[in-house]
Predict the 3D structure of the following.
Amino acid sequence: MISGDYIDQKYKTIIFHIDVNSAFLSWSAVKKLKEEPGSVDLRTIPSAVGGDVKSRHGIITAKSIPAKKYGIVTGEPVVKALQKCPKLVLVRGDFQTYREYSRAFIEIIGKYSPILEQVSIDEAYLDVSGMRSLYKAFETKELPYPTNIAELIKNEVRDKLGFTVNVGISCNKLLAKMASDFTKPDRVHTLFPEEIKEKMWPLPIGDLYGCGKQTAAKLVSMGIRTIGDAATQDPKVLVSVLGDNGGKYIYESANGHGSTNVSGHYEDAKSYSNETTLSSDLNADSYDKDIVPVLKSLSASVSKRLKKDHVFGRTVTVSVKTGNFKRHSAQMQLDNSIDDENKIFKSAKLLSDKLLLGDEGLFIKGEVIRLVGVGVSKLDDGSYQQLNLFDDIINPAPSADNDRQKKLDKMTEELDNRFGKNTIIKGSSLNT
């Protein structure tokens, strides 16, 4: 265990990534226990959130740890999950409840630092840099700084709200995020640069934050199986396989380099899109055979991200890049917002046909296509009103020093009220 003194002296920035364990499932479980005291805790049995409970259609959006042991994964059809575990207990999503618990979660962690960045319904970054003195009274040999602060947060969420979180601690956001994904639930983990070789490098390359399945598959095919393999690889090799941006990202991330900026603002995505560079140029002769799998793959990727964030979109866009590197696009607005990959694909295929095969199509002009992209925009909340759930519960952190000090003073007062007078000692009062 790295000592608090060492961390305090070496790292000016200390960032937490706080992630609710199986958020939707946990929040549904807590609500059920409140409404039906003595009932079974959904978190202790194979259970999942998703789909229509009666018809058993739809997809899994959250699962319990016991369900995970059956191989059930988020995003798979309910029918397939039931084949793996016939006794799986299904519960319907309840976004009003999720909104309430998300608000309460953010309210608690916001007491510990004025610099908070919520990145999704169930996770946030917290910058606790320079706050050691505020929590000095809670520091022990077993719980040195900054682990002591993380434990306070974790325990307060569990004791007051009834669900658990993981807290990852490091000097940047990437490593904090990686640390929070270590052993679950209800745990605190550190991942500082001196711990990367032992804790992160042995992990499969697919566990690296930001490394998708396709990227991981490419890397594994060339013998790069672990994060450590990527970290010690010649970056030129990674760039040659993944492109300039992709190769550099994997190399830098595998070596633990990441942003230290906790912005204090939560912004909804304006659009969701994905694109791919084709292995060979697409032309009029190969179009019918090659375009369908490309558009289906891109549509599935966009759909997965939309569903993960519980948002829908009304405008579908197809973009292409020609052999002379010029970009062209076409879009259409739908009557109803969608998140389904088949509906996205059908719209994308119509647009692609028009853009490439129409009377004014690019193929008629003799162009070839080297890149294809699919996007969905004009986002809304769909039938569940799931998108802008948090606009009224997230207050951006002030940037001015005096506002920060006011919030720190208020936080100190609140900590005194919770833990007793003179428990929190300001740095100027400490003997050094």
Remarks:
- The chain has three domains: 1-196+388-432, 201-254, 271-384.
- The first strand starts at residue 15 and ends at 20.
- The CA atoms of residues 22 and 220 lie 29 Å apart.
- The two ends are 24 Å apart (CA to CA).
